[in-house]
Amino acid sequence: MIRTVWRRSVRFLGSAGFATVLLAFVGLWSLATTFIPQGEPSNALVAAWASAHPFIDSVVRAVGLHQAFTSPVFAVSVFALSVSTALCAWRRTKVAMHRGRALANAGRADEQSVAARHDFEISCDPVLSASEVLPIASETLRDLGVRTKRRGDMLAAVSPAWSVLGSPIFHWALLALIVVVLASSLQRSEGKIGVAVGQTKPDAPESYGSLRTGPLHNWDNVHRSIRVDAFDLQFRTGGIDRGPTPTVSVLDGTGQVIKTQRVYPNHQLKTGSLAIYPSTYGLSAAVSFVNTSGVETGRFVELMDFSETAAGGTVPAQSIGISNSAGSVELVAAVTVPLERVDGQVDQSLPKDPTARVVVTSLDGTPLVDRVVSPGEDVALPIGGSLRVDNIGYYARLQVVDDWSTIPLYVCLVAATLGLTIAFVAHQQIILATVIEGPDGLKLAATARLWRNTLSTRSTLESKLTEALGDVAKGSTT
């Protein structure tokens, strides 16, 4: 009873129908992520979507679609698909091994072995001599799409051993692809990081504005930083305008440059498992804090995004907390850069003579200071000391992906394509024939195994050979 249940379970798990259902579910699940924002509940996009779709969001949150590729539902589905694919691959591998042994034996066969053991015999017309039988049989088989080779007194059409490998290669490659995708989703990280020109930021969670990581991603093994060396508002190469283009460097843990490259659409920076893509850009202001003695006590880089609704055309990415002598935040500063407008639209470029608007408020939002200054000028603070705008420039927001799976995925896809090509193109057949002589005259003794991509069937072969060689009234014996 237990053995029967086990066999039925294995048969069901390895069935094509079960695998098809799982593939369809995984595909639909992945498609849903293009419509449903991904991230933690605190993520602004996720929260906004939840507010707009409260009823649907309760279901989405219950099944884990906001963290689609790390949710238990997805993990269980992919695991079941992996098991199904592994069982199917193993079953097809056993078939391929059996056929491979048969092909190897057929490759070593000679007329004596075929005469001793064969599938069927064709009685030849008495007027035919032994030297005429094989040429007629060869021509008949050629008309049926089977090209034979002459091995002494034997005809042979034996497929190469690799012809049986297509289906196993495809299924094992598909299994490897599933495993790589699952492992990658658990370990990859993807986020957006804003870096001002000349600024270096460590590749660490606190550097990112938005970040999504797999549950097994380990930041302890990441020892690198990202720097923006230059920014071209317009960059042309190959006669094509690539648009706003930052020059990005990746540095190792010691500060040595690993790679420097301009980054623009379809030209990402890749080094190891890291890939950096352009996202957008804005302006930045380097700010210094100076105490009452004129000593610099800290620095901060304010990033600003363009805004059509803001009065000055830019909005700060975050506010600056200003601490008193006891180290407690007492004031809040926001730095923006007033921009020009052209035909009512914000000119999204650095002004020729840029200035910075510095607004300082108390913690309850009461305005205390509102000044426009040029680079190098100070703004006195109500609690003493001053805030100095050192320089104004561009910043680049970069999409940074840490994913080791790119090369393994390509390998799996190439292997799967190769296996599928072999499975759909390569013949899998064994046809051996020789002439034997008995009390009833000459006979064609033949062995036929027609497994895949053959143009005929055994019954058709036997019928046509009988018609070409034999006495139709006698037919054949097996």
Could you report the average pLDDT, rounded to the nearest whole number?
90
Q: Name the shape in a single word.
A: elongated
What is the count of structural domains? 3
Q: How many helical elements?
A: 10
Low-confidence stretches: 472-478
Name the features.
single chain, 478 residues, alpha+beta, TATA-Binding Protein, 3 domains, six-stranded antiparallel β-sheet, 10 helices, 26 strands, disordered C terminus
Describe it:
By secondary structure, the protein is of the alpha+beta class. The chain folds into 3 domains: 2-91, no CATH class; 109-159 and 427-477, TATA-Binding Protein (2-Layer Sandwich); 189-402, no CATH class. Helices cover 33% and strands 34% of the residues. The chain has helices at residues 2-13, 16-32, 44-52, 54-63, 72-108, 111-116, 130-143, 166-187, 406-425, 458-469; strands spanning 120-123, 149-150, 154-158, 189-196, 200-202, 210-213, 224-232, 236-237, 240-241, 245-252, 257-262, 269-271, 274-290, 296-306, 314-316, 320-323, 329-336, 341-342, 345-346, 356-362, 367-373, 378-380, 386-402, 428-438, 441-452, 476-477. The strands form 6 sheets. Strands 4, 6, 12, 13, 14, 15, 22 and 23 form an 8-stranded antiparallel beta sheet that branches. A 6-stranded antiparallel beta sheet has the order 2-3-24-25-1-26, with helices on both faces. Strands 5-7-10-11 form a 4-stranded antiparallel beta sheet, with no helix packed on it. Strand 14 and strand 15 form a beta hairpin. Helix 3 packs across helix 4 and helix 7 packs across helix 10. The longest helix has 37 residues, at 72-108. The radius of gyration is 37 Å and the shape is elongated. The two termini are 40 Å apart.
